[in-house]
Amino acid sequence: MGAFLALAPCALAQESTTARAKALYRQGLIAMEQGQIDTARTCFREVLRLQPRNVNASYQLKQLELRRKPLLAKKRQLQMKSVRIPSVDFDAVTLPDALDALNALVEKQTKGKFVPNFIIQDPEGILEKRRFSLKLGAVPASIVLQYALDNTRATARYDEHAIVVRPVGKSQAARGPEGGTPEKSGTGKSADPF
Questions:
Q1: pLDDT at position 35, please?
Q2: What is the CATH topology of the domain spanning 2-66?
């Protein structure tokens, strides 16, 4: 009977270790989805300290390294969604001007803790010619960006350190379908309708 009582605390300790490892693993997965790589790494390492043979935590730790850039891009995207802009009033502005203003608004709203860092890839200056107006209030910065992109027929790609903006259709139209010259239709015009 004495041996049974001595094993009871060990079983409770094992159960609490297992529960803690499960909770940390879930925390790590949530941190990964939010692009918080350091938090996720810490959680998965702690799971492995508690349970050295936990293959799921080991796998996720390796995935962190393999998916580092997309996870950091996701973090930038989520940060844009979390920043609320009190009001925007753009009147006949170009996209580069709107992005400069949005960059400043986001930096101001986050008190300098986050800056979107827009990079415009438009060597032909197409986006300088397209003007738009936009009036919004109390919306996330990501919504302001999306409306600005939609109004100027542009697209954005979230990267680790910046948001890259380019006109729609330029990447494929500039190279053609196989990376060569742009395709020509029967009228001698480019296949890009813009």
A1: 85
A2: 1.25.40
